[in-house]
Design brief:
Strand content: under 5%
Number of strands: 0
Structural class: mainly alpha
Distance between the termini: 57 Å
Radius of gyration: 18 Å
Largest sheet: none
Number of helices: 3
Length: 75
C-alpha cells in the first residue's frame, strides 16, 4: 500500500471516529469509556482549553467538588 493511501485511510478513520464520538455525546448515549476516548483524542492532538468567563469550561470547574474539604476515609 502506498504511503499516500495509508495517510488517506488514517485521515478517514480519524474523521469517522470523531463523528461517532460527537454523535454519542450530543445524543446523550456516551458512556464513560466514550468520554475518555474523546478526552484522550483531544489530548493526543494537542487540543487544550483555557477556561474563560461564561464558558462551559468555567461551569464545569465551578461545579467540581473542593477536594481539600472532602474528608479522607481512613483504612
Amino acid at each position: 500500500m502506498e504511503k499516500a493511501n495509508k495517510i488517506e485511510l488514517l485521515e478517514t478513520l480519524h474523521t469517522v471516529l470523531i463523528k461517532e464520538l460527537l454523535d454519542k455525546i450530543k445524543c446523550g448515549e456516551a458512556k464513560p469509556g466514550d468520554l475518555n476516548v474523546a478526552r484522550q483524542l483531544l489530548k493526543d492532538n494537542g487540543i487544550e482549553c483555557i477556561p474563560t468567563e461564561k464558558s462551559p469550561m468555567e461551569d464545569l470547574m465551578s461545579n467540581l467538588p473542593d477536594l481539600d474539604v472532602i474528608p479522607s476515609i481512613e483504612r
